[in-house]
């Protein structure tokens, strides 16, 4: 076997790294007995060597030569031979498809002599000269790097002079003239004649394809799509077949199912008397593929057969390129086709029904990101929209607002109740305030790791970035549109972060049907009638059946708990109590903090108790029969007090103007000063607070117990769990636990309901807690990993301070592959989780383990938690379906089974 060049028979679909996607699949089709023009593939190894050393591997030219000879023998023609030439195409093909990014040259081997041979042999001089002008055009543009317009202009002029509506109306004489003009352009622009020697053409084209890997647009595309730069492209050298031999010939593209909706059927376009990109280039109107049946039934039937064979073989939707040369069908490309998120679900279910794949494989075919896409608010599909640009779909969702061009104005106008979209060329840390205030963010530069994209995703805010067609002038507050119009500050725009589209004006937003389904708003008949909803419902059932992980929700009130339950949560994994201390109740907390005497403190706590109890009753009712993990107060107290700077300024101003400063304000200021921390995240919070402020945690425990008793007496089945945050040492927990046990006993006694079985556990969110988990488990009856804080404390950075500052830089430089707040850093933070899980269970085998960080709703993290053997993940109610699906996928992945593609 040669080192750098592979025959079709040597390849297969699994060799994409070496042969690229196109080469690997051409080989696969050939080996299946499907007609593919004889082809050989130059490996990505050769490309990589060329790109690093600047030269082809020494043996490459010789290997190519040998393989060309083999093609010549197969065809019974010689490359560029004068009487009956063999012609070749030179096609790029990387591991991941990079549509339109790299180059292809068709009709290699034509020159002034062989064009005549081709004319004679085919009996079709028009066709021969049409092929020649295409070669000159593609060679000039791709290999010699000339402006495409130089050639296009000549074509346009010729059509105009000839009064021809399209290129097919040009006669052979026109084309001969064009050929001369094209040769002139090449001579003029490069100083050299077009190379007549076929092998020289071939090698130059191969080199051009190698080089196209590093073209500006290819580099940009890879950066945006996170495709590694070091892969390189393969090159396919393929015997030409001709769709431009007249009306019995043509070329087309097709999908085996509708890639937009997943609907079954034949989806494709066909163009008679055409070659190469003509179909997709829009130079002439294509006809629907089904029309082919009418005038070439034989080719059509064969194509249908091949399409169904391919689907059966790849067990999935395929897309294809083909050419018909005078009634003979040739396949030029196939791959498992891209599809929309919705189509992925629909197709996976169709394939189950067709017996092609099983349920487990169907779960592998979809993912949580796709499901999330189907759940984001959408622009009303029925609304009329005027699209003005398309950028990167950086952070999903749909947002409408008035354009503002700087952060300060965004903050100001949002505070005045206006919906705004922050429009920038690119964002930087100074834009953070505006990004928070805006409904969405639109930039004209930067890809998926740009500042705007990273920060918006972190905030869950809709963002379209890199909409390069827009000319953003922040100084003058205008946006130039591709059609020449200009929008200005204050104009309404709508951005779709799921598709990257930007629309003029306001587009109404609707809840997508999948969300209506999860909300329980659809009747069984409506579900049955909607292909997509039916598919989602079925896949969710499959996921639930397979998954080992439980899925709970982070919910702090009744309505959220109820929604979480509708979305399939089997409990609350994190009920944050700090939200219950805000709003009107802040005054009570203030009283608690300012209390000088046990009596004052006691009365503040007494006032808070019934309010807390009421909250819990509501949540326990919504989650009746299911566990609710309540976290006792976590954040630093200053969060409940006025801002230090503001307060200091107020008192200072009052002092200066001789105004009376109230006693209360003075004590408040003193307290704010006292509680002010350099590093609140690492300060007096969590269990430290519980140990410092007497009666606080026990009041909360009492509220929980009393609420549970009340629910029990009302016939309910409350299942609270009490969780102590930020424990670093088992003694902290021991002390709190004793105090809470006493409360449990007391309330049981008082109410006659046994509350002593309510479990008491802790969060594992400090490295020390993870490292001493074996000890902590002696006291803790369950663990819940607070992966957000655990990430912050393991890395030693606070999310709010660092995300906007340097994360996009870290991503650009590859220090992060993805933000550790988006997806768990499994090697670092994950290792602590793993260790704590293992050592905790060594102490207490029945220890229940969960996760309550946002990572609980992140697909990759869910897979990790499954592998570590946790019992459940908990995430925001809206992410619950995603977590369910991914938990099912993680289980299926572990079960193994073949990747059938
Ligand atoms: P892309 O990667 O952009 O799809 P391709 O390598 O598939 O580029 O080629 C571009 C066009 O040229 C396609 O329409 C393809 O079908 C056509 N083409 C490529 N090779 C041949 C060939 N040997 N004979 C006929 N048409 C070809
Ligand atoms: Mg192609
Ligand atoms: Mg925490």
Word description of this protein:
The chain is an alpha/beta fold. The protein has 4 domains: 5-239, ATP-grasp fold, A domain (Dna Ligase, domain 1, 2-Layer Sandwich); 250-336, 2-Layer Sandwich (D-amino Acid Aminotransferase, Chain A, domain 1); 376-510, 3-Layer(bba) Sandwich (Glucose Oxidase, domain 1), CATH 3.50.30; 547-635 and 695-896, Alpha-Beta Barrel (TIM Barrel). It has an 8-stranded mixed β-sheet. Strands 24-25-26-27-28-29-30-31 form an 8-stranded parallel β-barrel, surrounded by 7 helices. Strands 1-2-5-3-4 form a 5-stranded antiparallel β-sheet. α25 packs antiparallel against α26 (663-675) and α29 (730-751) runs parallel beside α31. The longest helix has 25 residues, at 598-622. The radius of gyration is 34 Å and the shape is elongated. The chain starts with a strand and ends in a 6-residue tail after the last helix. 51% of the residues are buried. Bound molecules: adenosine-5'-diphosphate and magnesium ion (MG) (2 copies). One magnesium ion binds at residues 321, 333. The site of one magnesium ion has 5 residues, from loops.
Termini Cα gap: 26 Å
CATH topology of the largest domain: TIM Barrel
Q: Radius of gyration, Cα only, in angstroms?
A: 34 Å
Number of domains: 4
Overall geometric form: elongated
- How does the helix and strand content classify structurally? alpha/beta
Uncertain runs are none
What CATH architecture of the largest domain do you see?
A: Alpha-Beta Barrel
Counted beta strands: 31
CATH superfamily of the largest domain: Phosphoenolpyruvate-binding domains
Main sheet specs: 8 strands, mixed
Average predicted confidence as pLDDT: 93
């Amino acid at each position: 076997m040669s080192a750098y060049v592979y025959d079709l028979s040597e390849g297969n679909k699994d060799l994409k790294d070496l042969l690229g996607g196109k080469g690997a699949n051409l080989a696969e089709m050939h080996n299946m007995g499907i007609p593919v023009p004889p082809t050989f593939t130059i490996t990505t190894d050769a490309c990589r060597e060329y790109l690093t050393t600047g030269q082809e591997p020494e043996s490459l030219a010789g290997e190519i030569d040998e393989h060309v000879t083999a093609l010549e023998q197969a065809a019974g023609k010689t490359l560029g031979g004068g009487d009956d030439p063999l012609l070749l195409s030179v096609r790029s093909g990387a591991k991941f498809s990079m549509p339109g990014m790299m180059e292809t040259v068709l009709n290699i081997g034509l020159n002034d002599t062989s064009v005549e041979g081709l004319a004679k042999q085919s009996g079709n001089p028009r066709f021969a000269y049409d092929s020649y002008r295409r070669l000159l055009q593609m060679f000039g543009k791709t290999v010699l790097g000339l402006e495409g317009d130089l050639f296009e202009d000549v074509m346009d002029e010729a059509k105009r002079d000839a009064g021809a509506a399209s290129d097919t109306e040009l006669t052979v004489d026109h084309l001969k003239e064009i050929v001369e003009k094209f040769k002139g352009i090449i001579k003029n622009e490069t100083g050299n004649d077009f190379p007549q020697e076929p092998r020289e053409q071939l090698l130059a084209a191969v080199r051009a394809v190698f080089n196209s890997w590093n073209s500006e647009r290819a580099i940009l595309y890879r950066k945006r799509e996170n495709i590694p730069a070091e892969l390189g492209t393969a090159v396919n050298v393929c015997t030409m077949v001709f769709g431009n031999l007249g009306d019995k010939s043509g070329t087309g593209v097709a999908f085996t199912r509708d890639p937009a909706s997943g609907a079954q059927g034949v989806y494709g376009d066909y163009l008679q008397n055409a070659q190469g990109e003509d179909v997709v280039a829009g130079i002439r109107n294509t006809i629907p593929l089904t029309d082919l049946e009418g005038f070439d039934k034989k080719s059509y039937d064969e194509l249908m057969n091949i399409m169904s064979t391919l689907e059966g073989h790849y067990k999935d939707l395929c897309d294809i390129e083909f050419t018909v040369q005078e009634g003979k069908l040739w396949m030029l490309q196939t791959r498992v086709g891209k599809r929309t998120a919705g189509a992925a679900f629909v197709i996976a279910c169709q394939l189950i029904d067709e017996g092609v794949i099983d349920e487990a494989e169907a779960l592998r075919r979809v993912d949580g990101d796709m499901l999330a896409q189907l759940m984001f608010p959408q622009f009303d599909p029925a609304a009329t929209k005027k699209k003005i640009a398309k950028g990167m779909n950086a952070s999903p969702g749909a947002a409408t607002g008035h354009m503002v061009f700087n952060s300060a104005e965004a903050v100001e106008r949002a505070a005045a109740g206006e919906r705004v979209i922050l429009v920038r060329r690119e964002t930087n840390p100074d834009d953070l305030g505006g990004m928070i205030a805006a409904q969405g963010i639109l930039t004209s530069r930067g890809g998926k790791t740009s500042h705007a994209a990273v920060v918006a995703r972190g905030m869950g805010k809709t963002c379209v970035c890199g909409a390069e067609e827009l000319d953003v002038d922040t100084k003058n507050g205008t946006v130039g549109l591709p059609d020449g119009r200009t929008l200005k500050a204050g104009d309404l725009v709508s951005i779709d972060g799921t598709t990257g589209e930007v629309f003029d004006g306001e587009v109404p937003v609707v809840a997508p049907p999948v969300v209506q389904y999860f909300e329980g708003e659809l009747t069984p008949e409506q579900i049955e009638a909607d292909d997509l909803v039916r598919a989602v419902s079925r896949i969710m059932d499959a996921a639930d059946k397979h998954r080992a992980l439980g899925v709970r929700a982070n919910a702090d009130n009744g309505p959220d708990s109820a929604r979480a339950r509708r979305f399939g949560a089997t409990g609350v994994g994190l009920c944050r109590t700090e939200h219950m201390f805000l709003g009107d109740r802040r005054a009570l907390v203030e009283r608690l903090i300012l209390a000088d005497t046990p009596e004052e403190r006691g009365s503040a706590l007494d006032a808070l108790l019934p309010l807390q109890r009421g909250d819990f009753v509501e949540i326990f009712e919504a989650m009746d029969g299911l566990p609710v993990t309540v976290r006792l107060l976590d954040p630093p107290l200053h969060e409940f007090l006025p801002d230090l700077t503001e307060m200091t300024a107020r008192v200072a101003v009052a002092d200066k103007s001789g105004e009376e400063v109230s006693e209360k304000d003075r004590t408040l200021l003193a307290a704010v000063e006292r509680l002010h921390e350099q590093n609140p995240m690492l300060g007096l919070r969590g269990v430290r607070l519980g140990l410092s402020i007497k009666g606080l945690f026990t009041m909360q425990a009492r509220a929980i117990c009393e609420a549970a008793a009340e629910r029990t007496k009302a016939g309910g089945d409350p299942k609270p769990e009490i969780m102590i945050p930020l424990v670093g040492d088992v003694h902290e927990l021991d002390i709190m636990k004793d105090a809470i046990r006493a409360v449990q006993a007391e309330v049981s006694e008082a109410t006659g309901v046994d509350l002593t079985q309510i479990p008491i556990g802790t969060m594992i969110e400090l490295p020390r807690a993870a490292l001493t988990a074996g000890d902590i488990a002696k006291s803790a009856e369950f663990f819940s990993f607070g992966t957000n804080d655990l990430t912050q404390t393991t890395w030693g950075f606070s999310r709010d301070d660092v995300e906007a500052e340097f994360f996009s830089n870290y991503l650009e430089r590859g220090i992060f592959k993805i933000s550790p707040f988006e997806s768990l850093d499994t090697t670092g933070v994950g290792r602590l989780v793993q260790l704590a899980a293992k050592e905790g269970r060594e102490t207490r085998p029945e220890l229940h383990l969960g996760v309550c960080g946002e990572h609980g709703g992140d697909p990759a993290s869910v897979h990790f938690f499954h592998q570590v053997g946790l019992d459940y993940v908990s995430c925001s109610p809206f992410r619950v379906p995603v977590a369910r699906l991914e938990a099912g996928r993680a289980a299926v992945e572990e079960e193994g089974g073949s990747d059938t593609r």
